């Protein structure tokens, strides 16, 4: 996108797999620990570390997580790791002008998980399509927390075994705006 100069991080970002097919192989504990370490090393306002993650690895917990998924995210039921990311406003900076950083910092930590998963050659797809109420109820998460994201993670499965619509979606090239739509240099518009 930018130029041909290749760097490790840019390569990882280019390689990031957000396909929707998972193999039935369980993630080794070492990998799960690395995903946690990656998130924990994230930057945060005042080093508040406002992210809270619930890692669902056992079948009974995964089953509860799967119940929350939207119909369109049914493919995520095959993932053998579901990560729930949640946070609340008073865990992070709240500035007098109204800027609150809890979700911003949770998002940065989620990105670290996606990057580490990519380095481990895993598929990791973040999702907003789930019921916050179901997760809250099943795992007794207090109402002050905003349950922002679920991430389906696992070894890549065979895309060709998914139904045709999902196959087509998963084979689409990644789309991005041209840089000038999002970036401004020295002046805004
Ligand atoms: C906050 C957030 C919510 C998302 N929700 C869903 C979702 O519910 N289902 C899904 O299939 N993908 C979901 N995605 C994945 C995006 O659709 C995907 O990242 C985007 O289309 C760009 O594609 P890429 O990740 O392959 O580059 C979500 C991503 C983010 C960051």
Report what the structure shows.
This protein has helices spanning 8-15, 29-40, 59-68, 102-119, 132-139, 164-171; strands spanning 52-56, 81-87, 122-127, 146-155. The chain has 189 residues and is α+β, with helices and mostly antiparallel strands. The protein has a single domain, classed as NADH Oxidase (3-Layer(aba) Sandwich). A four-stranded antiparallel β-sheet has the order 1-2-4-3, with helices on both faces. α2 runs antiparallel to α4 and α3 runs antiparallel to α5 (132-139). The mean pLDDT is 95. Residues 18, 73, 125-129, 149, 174 line the site of flavin mononucleotide.
- H/E element string? HHEHEHEHEH
**What is the tally of helical segments?**
6
Q: According to CATH, what is the topology?
A: NADH Oxidase
Quick one: biggest sheet?
4 strands, antiparallel
User: What is the strand content?
Assistant: 5-15%
Q: How many structural units, i.e. domains?
A: 1
Shape annotation: globular
**What small molecules accompany the polymer chains?**
flavin mononucleotide
> How are the strands of the largest sheet arranged?
1-2-4-3
Mean pLDDT: 95
CATH class (first level) name: Alpha Beta
Q: What is the SS-derived class?
A: alpha+beta
Overall radius of gyration: 18 Å
Q: Descriptors for this entry?
A:
6 helices; four-stranded antiparallel beta sheet; binds flavin mononucleotide; 34% helix; NADH Oxidase; alpha+beta; single chain
Give a topology summary:
Layout: H1 8-15, H2 29-40, E1 52-56, H3 59-68, E2 81-87, H4 102-119, E3 122-127, H5 132-139, E4 146-155, H6 164-171
Antiparallel strand pairs: 1-2, 2-4, 3-4
Helix pairs in contact: 2-4, 3-5
The structure holds flavin mononucleotide.
